[in-house]
Each structure stands twice: as structure tokens, then as C-alpha cells.
Amino acid sequence: MGKKYVHGYTARENVRLVDQATTLAGILHSDTVYPAGSNVLEAGCGVGAQTILLARNSPNAKFTAVDVSEDSLRAARERVSSQGLTNVTFHRCDLFHLPYEENSFDHLFLCFVLEHLPNPMEALLCLRRVLKGGGTITVIEGDHGSAYFSPESPDARKAIRCLVDIQAGMGGNSLIGRELYPLLMKSNFVNVDVSPRMVYVDSSKPDLVEGFTKNTFIAMVKGVREQAIRSGLMDEASWDQGIRDLYGTTGEDGTFIYTFFKGRASK
Amino acid sequence: MGKKYVHGYTARENVRLVDQATTLAGILHSDTVYPAGSNVLEAGCGVGAQTILLARNSPNAKFTAVDVSEDSLRAARERVSSQGLTNVTFHRCDLFHLPYEENSFDHLFLCFVLEHLPNPMEALLCLRRVLKGGGTITVIEGDHGSAYFSPESPDARKAIRCLVDIQAGMGGNSLIGRELYPLLMKSNFVNVDVSPRMVYVDSSKPDLVEGFTKNTFIAMVKGVREQAIRSGLMDEASWDQGIRDLYGTTGEDGTFIYTFFKGRASK
Fold first, then answer.
1. CB A175 to CB B181 under 8 A?
2. pLDDT tens digit string along B70-129?
């Protein structure tokens, strides 16, 4: 999984992931609270951007956060301890070979993980094995096909499409948000409930213009510039126009819309 | 405007408009309530699908509902009186030549009207003239570019695009939802607040599968079949495949997503 992470592992990307998590904390995470004493597995914690929010929202739950990347885990450990949080244990391991007994955890949590996997249903089945009966799974994913904006721009659309195609070329699926419901159903979870979390941005919401449209979404698209141009998906001039047009949606008359999907289900 | 209404004026279309309004009443209209005694203008009331919801939600407000089509007004009058509602007066007139003094109304309401006009800002300015200072305007519009679904289908996308293009060819803009904020701002309204109203449908929501995906959205797309094929926008086989694929999103593993936008502002 390490080399196949579309957004890369740069320092700038780490900053973006934390900006994103902070801006979206209310929209995505505020309704995830675990009871005192419960054992929660966070699968694919990355640099810990979500981990600190989880651990803070449920200070008396015990989190086990796992990832395949040792570098990411190191960043996550530092982030968690710098926040004074002591309810997280980290393990390096692979989602598909979790070193835990059946029925080990009360709850499972994963955020922006399935979109990067060629076999998300297999991942869900592996995770389900370690979940206790009656326990819950919470899955948060984006959907890049949910993005639209004004003013309209064919180049901006194409640039977003490049990100979708590059991620697909690496075996991922950045349009997975809309598929969460069938994915959870087919992975034998019950009481599946998916709730969309739309981010609607117009110029009356300057915090979202900065924190979401510019620093989360456009920053993410810009991250695949070299790959998009090198692979011939877009020429340099159209790409740069597309990015300029995306910034155009952050102006006084612009709007930008994106939707995340949060699924919850039980074993 | 009469001849230029993309959805036509058939009996079947009238049924669709009322199905749509009933299914969406909670999502779109439940938070529109006017104080007793206030004078509210509903511009472009059509067959009265929204009018009955408005009049019922605010039984002590007085509504003036106007439309350019005499046939639509007749249907609206019948619908309103069949519901026992007595707080609506109907007038046949044109949005751009409203036969009212300046500052005549306490509030303005319009739903699915601007999307059919070549000059929505001019319409808003004409409406603003008859609104009292401090009065509010409420505008509800869809955005056909907000539709996405699973399973994915290029033909289904193309069929939706036909509706967008045909409506554009008649001078309308079915992607107007995302532009409500700048439109209201540029029309000199203040305190502009736009809130998206997403309809998220999966198979755990059978009422929305029937009432929204099938009977509102797919029914609307099907309404332009002849025009789409006759004008060469799509061949018959691809069109029919597109419609079958849209129905495919109403199956057990399907999802369908669409967003309306509700804008509120003051003079």
C-alpha cells in the first residue's frame, strides 16, 4: 500500500491532511463518540490526522491505530503525544493480515482508506473478523465525482478527472463514497446507515473557502500535477488553466460543493 | 414562457410535479413558515404543487400566486380549493411585468422557476421591486449537475446531459442551484444564505427510491426522450440503455444522489 498512496508522503501532504481533518472535524467526526472502556481499532490511521480527533472525542475509550507505513506511524505517534493524548496504541500492520484474534474489538473506524484499495470488500471482511458481534464499524470516504462548482470550467473538471484516473490506475476508487451502502451490505454488516456530509462553500463562508476549497481540495488536485502531465492525461497549459479556474471558484461569485459519505453498520 | 417550459404541460407531467412536491415537502418546504397576516407573493406557481404546501404551512398568511399560463393557473386553483385552502388568490401575469406597486409584499417565494428563464437576475430584480424593505425572498432550485449514482453508466449520464442541453437550448439553466448565492447577491439582496438540500437514496429508503429516483427524477429525464432522439443528441438505443441504467440505480445495490438549493435573502 505504501508506494501506492496517490497523495504521496511529503511533508506538505502531511500538513494538508491535518488542515483537512481540522476543517472537517465538525462535519465528519463530531457524531463519533465511543463509550468509556471500549476497544476501538482505527485501520489505516496514516499520519494520525483523524486519530487525534477520535481520541479527543472519546477520552475514555482505548484506541489501537494501525497502518502499513512506518513513516506515517512515526508522524502519528508524535502528533498524538504532542496533543497530550494517552489513549492510543500504535501497531504497524496490514489491514489484510491483522494480527488480532476474532472478536477482539468493540468498534472499528476507518477514514479515507477504502478509496485507496483495489479490494475494499475484502478489507471490510478482514476487519469484520476482528470485530465483536454487535460492535459497530464507521467508514468515512469522499467521492471526487461529487465535486461541482461555479463558474463552470471544462479544464477544472478535467484536472479533477485526472486525479480520479490516476487513483484508479493505482487500483483505488475515488468515487467510492456513493458505493458505501452496497459495500457494507455485501460485506455482511447489518443496520447499515449511510449519511452524506456535504461541504457547501460560497463566499459568505471564508473559513471553508480557505480550509476546504483551497487547502484541502485544490491542494489535493495540485498534488498529481506532474503525474497528470507526464502521463499525457492533460497538457501543461490546460492543467494550469484548470487549477486557475478551481481558484476562480473561491472568488466572490464562486461556489464549490463536495460530499463525503459516512457509513455506520453493525456486525 | 408558456411554450418554453422544458417539461411540457401534459397530464402526466402534472402528476409528476405533485409526486415530486409531496416527496420533497419535508426536505424543501418544512422550514418555510410565514407569520399570520403577512402578504406573500408566489411567483411562477405552475399547477400549484408548491402552493398547497405553502398555504398549508402558513394558514394565516395570505398568498398571491401568479403564473403566465392560464391552464396551469386553472389546475392550481382546483388543487388549492380541493384541499380546502382559502388563503390563496391567483393572478395571471408575467414575472417581468408584475402589476403591483413597489413594496407591495412582505415576502416572496419561488420554486423551480429561475431555472427556466434566460435572464434570472432580471427576474429577481423585477421581484425585488414589489418586495417591502426588510422582507424576505425564498428561492428553491435544483441542479441537474448534482446528480450522480451507482452503478455508474455513461449512457445514463448522457441522457441527463440531454435534459440539461435541451433546457439550455430553450434559454434555461438546469445547473442554476449552485449559482443561487451569486445570483441573489448580484440582484442586491442582503443577508443571503443558501442551504443545500441533498436527496440521498439507497435501497434502505424505499419511499425515496419510488417517490424521488423513479417518479421524480427518472420521470423528468424520460420526458425529453423524443426531443433528445429527434435532435440527434442521442440515438434511440443509447437513450433506452441510459434510462434502463437509471432504473438500475434503484436496485438493491444502487444509490442515487441529487441536491436542491434553497436560498433565503432580504431586501
1. no
2. 999 999 999 999 999 999 999 999 999 999 999 999 999 999 999 999 999 999 999 999
Structural contact between residues A249 and B251, judged by C-beta atoms closer than 8 angstroms: no
A216: nearest Cα among A26, A13, A45, A9: A13
Contact (CB<8Å) A204/B193 = yes
pLDDT of residue A125: 98
Q: Are B98 and B66 in contact (CB under 8 A)?
A: yes
Phi/psi at B114 (nearest 5 deg)?
-60, -35
The model carries a pTM of 0.92
Inter-chain CB pairs, A–B, below 8 Å: 73
Going by C-alpha positions, the residue among A177, A219, A254, A216 that lies closest to residue A25 is A216
What pLDDT is recorded for position B11? 72
Please give, rounded to a whole number of angstroms, the shortest distance from the CA of A58 to a CA of chain B: 29
Confirm if B136 and B230 have CB atoms less than 8 A apart. Answer: no
ipTM of the complex in this document: 0.91
The SS3 of residue B183 is: helix
Q: Residue A246: what pLDDT?
A: 98
Output the DSSP codes for A43-89. Answer: ES-TTSTTHHHHHHHSTTSEEEEEES-HHHHHHHHHHHHHTT--SEE
> Per-residue pLDDT tens for A97-106?
999 999 999 9
**Would the CB atoms of A185 and B253 count as touching at under 8 Å?**
yes
Contacts made by residues A6-13, CB under 8 angstroms, sequence distance 24+? A6/A116, A6/A163, A6/A166, A6/A167, A6/A170, A6/A172, A6/A174, A6/A223, A6/A224, A7/A220, A7/A223, A8/A223, A9/A69, A9/A71, A9/A72, A13/A223
- Which residues of chain A neighbour B186 with C-beta distances below 8 Å? 253
Q: Is the dihedral of CA A178, B159, B110, B8 positive or negative?
A: negative
CA distance A137 to A237: 44
Distance of CA A251 to the CA centre of its chain: 26
Q: What are the residues facing B62 on neighbouring strands?
A: B39
| pLDDT reading at B14 higher than 80 | no
Q: What does DSSP assign to residue A130?
A: T
